[in-house]
Amino acid sequence: MLVCVRYLVVGAGGHAEEVAWSLVEHERARGESPEAVFFDDVRPPGPLSSGLGAIAGPLDAVADYADRRATLLVLGVGLPRLKQRLVARLAPLGLSWATVVHPRAIVGPNVEIGPGSYVAAGAIVTVNVRLGAFVTVNLHAQVAHDGIVDAYATLHPNARVAGNVRVGEAAELGTGAIVLPGLTVGAGTVLGAGAVALEALEDGVTYVGAPARPVHRRARRPA
Ligand SMILES: CC(C)(COP(=O)(O)OP(=O)(O)OC[C@H]1O[C@@H](n2cnc3c(N)ncnc32)[C@H](O)[C@@H]1OP(=O)(O)O)[C@@H](O)C(=O)NCCC(=O)NCCS
User: Considering only 38-42, 68-72, 151-155, 178-182, which range has the smallest mean pLDDT?
Assistant: First the structure.
């Protein structure tokens, strides 16, 4: 049986609830009261404690609630590789993805935000910025003028990129990380929480510290 619901939230963890809350606030500001159901492969079906809706079942159940003309998917996860996996998995359904911007995010003129992206409460995206598809700009994160953030990249809470920075596809900037003006963050690169990038960051490398340097993992003793 097909039960058509407007918003189908992919994931039901805390981040998914924050995204859904942003969506509800946005719709309420326009006089709408949106209906959302959540899907999660790990958490059991049932109502969410936030009161934002209920988990209907695992991701395979999305098709039972989807109507291509009326339904939008909402990406409720924030880690780049998980975003990529879930978007690829749901692609055969041919559904569109909602772009979610909390009404108390600040978004300036000439800013493009791709489908499936999320800009959280308190985030600031200033002027002439391009956010690709499935980008996450989490709570109080900032993207300054002329920035480009490629698809699937994530800025965790309070991460800040200065003007003219390019953040590569599926890159991840940890909580409170800073990227100085004009630098490039490579595709798939991770900048650790609190790190400060003073130079361009290569593709696929994890950096930590201030100034940011490639992480050196100590050899672990066998257990
Ligand atoms: C950088 C990061 C990805 C590294 O994780 P990891 O690959 O599992 O690496 P490890 O935890 O094994 O740490 C490796 C080394 O880097 C150090 N390190 C890890 N993260 C660090 C950070 N943010 N700043 C400084 N040093 C850090 C560790 O102390 C360790 O050092 P050691 O080998 O001398 O003991 C992770 O620590 C991080 O900062 N992630 C950001 C997460 C985040 O902001 N999430 C937001 C959720 S809302």
Answer: 68-72
Same domain, 59 and 116: no
Q: Do 108 and 74 share a structural domain?
A: no
Choose among 43, 51, 41, 66: nearest CA to 21: 51
How many whole angstroms separate alpha carbon 18 and alpha carbon 84? 20
Q: At residue 168, does pLDDT exceed 60?
A: yes
Instruction: Of 51, 61, 46, 47, give the one whose Cα is nearest residue 10.
Output: 61
Number of domains in the chain: 2
Asked whether residue 182 falls in the same domain as residue 134, the answer is: yes
Domain around 110 = 99-206
Residue nearest to atom 3 of ligand 1 (CA): 192
Pocket of ligand 1 (CB under 6 A): 156-157, 174-175, 190, 192-195, 206, 208-209, 215, 217-218
Span 178-196, mean pLDDT?
98
Final residue before a domain boundary, out of 48, 78, 98 = 98
How many A from CA of 35 to the centre of ligand 1?
38
Output the residue whose Cα is nearest ligand 1's atom 28.
217
